[in-house]
Design a protein that fits this description.
The complex is a heterodimer of chains A (107) and B (233). Chain A has 107 residues and is an alpha+beta fold. In chain A, 28% of the residues lie in helices and 31% in strands. In chain A, strands 3-2-1-5-4 form a five-stranded antiparallel sheet, sandwiched between helices. By secondary structure, chain B is α/β, with parallel strands linked by helices. In chain B, the strands form two sheets. In chain B, strands 7-6-5-8-9-10 form a six-stranded parallel sheet, sandwiched between helices. In chain B, strand 8, helix 5 and strand 9 form a beta-alpha-beta unit. Chain B starts with a helix and ends with a helix. Classes of the chains: A alpha+beta (107), B alpha/beta (233). At the A-B interface, helix 1, strand 1 and strand 5 of A face helix 1 and strand 4 of B.
Amino acid sequence: MLDRDEDILKAAEDWQKAGHGVALATVVETWGSAPRPAGSSLVINDDGTFLGSVSGGCVEGAVVTEAMDVIQSGKPRMLEFGVADETAWNVGLSCGGTIRVFVEKVG
Amino acid sequence: MKLEILHELNAERAARRPAILVTDTESGEQRLVKAKDFAGDPLRAELEKQLRMGKSANVEVGGRKLFLNVYAPTAKLVIIGAVHISQALAPLARSLGYDVTVVDPRTAFASPERFPDIPLVAEWPDTALPPLNVDAYTAFVAVTHDPKIDDPALLHAFERGCFYIGALGSRKTHAKRGDRLRAQGAKESDIARIHAPIGLAIGAVSPSEIAVSIMAEITAVLRLPPKEKEEAA
C-alpha cells in the first residue's frame, strides 16, 4: 500500500512498551462508498489517546469506546458500521458506506 | 496482535521489506508472512496477488475467514535529470503516491523555482544516489540525454535491483547507450532491463503526455502479473 499515514504501528509498539494497554482497530471490509480502504487502522491506548483513522472521523468515537473494552477483556471483536444499522447511523457513517472493523488487543 | 508479531512487522516496514499479516477474523489468530517466505506458503497465490495490487483483502480458505493486511513500502521514484519532462513527471508521480526525488548536477536545471516542493539533489549521481537508499521498491528513470549523468546513474540502478528502470532516447540512442554501459561492465541482463524508448507507446508528444506514458508503464510493471506485463511492454 502506498501509505503516507502517521506511523500507527510504531505508536502501537511504543505505547505498549511504555506500559499502556493498547488496542488496534483495522478496517477489514468495506461496501459502498466507505471513506477508508481495508487495511486502514487506528491505534488506541488506555488513556483514550488514538492515532490514525478507520473512517475519516465518522465512527472513531464508537471504535475508541469498544477498544477500551477490548483492552480490558483481551478478546478481539468485530464491529460493523453502516446505514442499515441504527446505532451506526447515529454515530454517523453518513457517506452511505458500510465498514467492518476488527478490534484487537496488542500484547 | 502479539507484541512479537508487531515488533517483527515494524522491523520489516522499517527495512522497506513487504509483509502480509494474516488474521483469522473469527478466532483472532494471526501470523505474519514476510515477502521472502511467500513461495513456501499455503496461501502463496493470494499473498502474491494482494501484494502486487498493494491491497488488503478477505479470503476464505478451508472454511476460515482470513483477512490479509498488506504492508508494502511506499514506492519511490528517482528521476535523473531536472528537465522539462521531469517538471511534469515529478508532480504526477507524487499524486500517484510515490516519494519523488530529482537528481541533476546542473544547478540551472535543478532549481526550486522549476520544481516547487519536490526534493532536489544538485549533485552528480555518484554523490547523490547512495544516500537515497535506492531499492527494489524504487522506480528509476534517466532523462537527461547526457551520458555523463545518465550512465553512472543507470549502473547504480542495476546494482540496487530497482523494479523499473527507464531511459529516454530513441532505439538508436539506446543501442549506443548499451555499448557504453557494457564497456563499463554492465551485464546483458541489466541492459535488457532498461525500458527504452521510455514509456508506453501512446503517441505522447508534450512533456506532460510523456510523463503520463512513463507513469503508465511504471504502474503496469508494479501491478500487472508477469505474463500480462510482457504483453503490455
